[in-house]
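We modelled each protein-ligand pair independently. The example shown here corresponds to the zinc ion entry; the chain sequence is given first, followed by the ligand as SMILES.
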Amino acid sequence: MKPTCPCCHNKFKSTEIKNTNKKGIFFEVECPSCRTWVRLNKTQEIIKAAGISLLLITSLLNIFSIKSEYSSIFSTVGFTGIFIAMLITFFSKHEAIK
Ligand SMILES: [Zn+2]
């Protein structure tokens, strides 16, 4: 994933990021060119977290064979969740923190 800085429109590699800041599920990075703090759009970050949680929950249900008659439904739901999370990771927009 290469975040694009909304301020200077510079694409920076994750290896160039020197400063990061984690606030709960929100992950903030500092643009190496203009030193603006950048984060993922909040709504996208929440949907991404929800997608990952969905996969975790449905996987756990399957592992412990809870409601095993629904296991194929759980697998489908879990796959959809991680698929959405992946889409957001690849196509998400970053915004500057003011
Ligand atoms: Zn920048």
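Residues 18 and 31 are 8 Å apart (CA to CA).
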